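hey
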């Protein structure tokens, strides 16, 4: 495997609250991530494809929320990778709502 010529990027989510998160990539991968972040700031959302070290590509979706989207943001499932069941409805979920279907998967934010 070579890092040259492909946008390589690893995104490591927090395993639980207060845990660290990491973004590791080559120049092309980090540049593509930066460009996707800039596009989401301009257009409200963006998508970019990246490749981990095994070469299996994946899409990353970036969504801009407005300052008044607090209720929507709090209705999303927590981003932790440590699971306590089939979905991320674990004891780290802090934002209780009256909606019995919360927390929501962030995939629903993208059209």
């Amino acid at each position: 495997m070579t890092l040259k010529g492909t946008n390589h990027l690893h995104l490591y989510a927090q395993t639980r609250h207060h845990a660290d998160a990491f973004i590791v990539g080559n120049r092309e991968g980090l540049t593509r991530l930066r460009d996707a972040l800039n596009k989401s700031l301009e257009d409200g959302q963006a998508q970019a494809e990246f490749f981990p070290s095994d070469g299996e590509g994946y899409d990353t979706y970036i969504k801009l929320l407005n300052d008044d989207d607090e209720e929507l943001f709090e209705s999303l499932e927590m981003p932790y990778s440590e699971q306590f069941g089939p979905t991320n409805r674990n004891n780290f979920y802090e934002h209780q709502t009256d909606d019995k279907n919360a927390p929501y998967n962030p995939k629903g934010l993208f059209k």
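The chain is about 20% helix and 20% strand. Strands lie at 9-12, 22-25, 45-50, 58-63.
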